[in-house]
Design a protein that fits this description.
This protein is mainly alpha-helical and about 200 residues long. The protein has a domain of about 120 residues. The protein has 4 helices and 2 strands, in the order αβαααβ. A two-stranded antiparallel sheet has the order 1-2. Helix 2 packs antiparallel against helix 4. The protein is elongated, with a radius of gyration of 69 Å. It starts with about 25 loop residues before the first helix and ends with a strand.
Length: about 200
């Protein structure tokens, strides 16, 4: 009599009195467990901690470039007291001659312009009529002022005056310079205060 128990067929009930066999685990369970074991754990994102806010660097305001050349400090006005102790007679002669020539030219031009102005105004005819009226007809030759003060005579007379003025002014200027030098040796000369302000 064999003791081997036949393997129960699936779907059949176990025999009475037969030892109970442990229930077989389904074969799919280990595979599912293995699959769950092999799955990597779900990665949950770590909570992001806000980065500490650093204050933005302040950009400095653009500075105006310094001046290339600094203005020099204003110095106090300097004063110097000087004495004119000597005058060069030769320089005085040249300066006086040039000034007297210019004055002579002005004299001649002014005399001609003045004569032309008086003639345009009819002054000479008025003077002639007045003198002839005083003389009367018995006076003889009628008086004519233009025979005495014609334009040529006025121009020549003013030229002579201008030449005399040139000689006199030049001579007097040089003489004055010599006299000044002599007197400056005695009293020290004329004091002059100069300043650079």
């Amino acid at each position: 009599m064999s003791t081997n128990n036949p393997i129960p067929r699936p779907g059949s009930a176990p025999r009475v009195g037969a030892p109970a066999r442990p229930a077989q685990r389904p074969t799919s369970a280990p595979a599912a467990g293995a699959a769950t074991a092999k799955r990597p754990a779900s990665k949950t994102p770590a909570p992001k901690t806000p980065a500490p806010k650093t204050p933005a660097p302040k950009t400095p305001a653009p500075k105006t470039p310094p001046a290339l050349v600094k203005p020099a400090p204003k110095a106090k006005a300097r004063r110097a007291r000087l004495l004119i102790s000597k005058v060069d007679p030769w320089s005085v002669l040249k300066m006086a001659f040039l000034l007297s020539v210019a004055l002579g030219i002005v004299t001649v031009v002014a005399a001609i312009v003045l004569w032309s102005l008086l003639d345009t105004m009819g002054l000479f005819e008025t003077v002639n009529a007045f003198i002839n009226e005083i003389q009367g007809k018995e006076g003889g030759v009628p008086f004519d002022l233009l025979t005495i003060v014609s334009l040529g005579q006025v121009a020549s007379f003013s030229t002579i005056v201008a030449v005399v003025n040139v000689v006199l002014l030049t001579t007097l200027s040089v003489l004055s310079a010599v006299l000044y030098n002599i007197s400056a040796t005695l009293v020290g000369g004329i004091g002059v205060t100069l300043t650079d302000d």
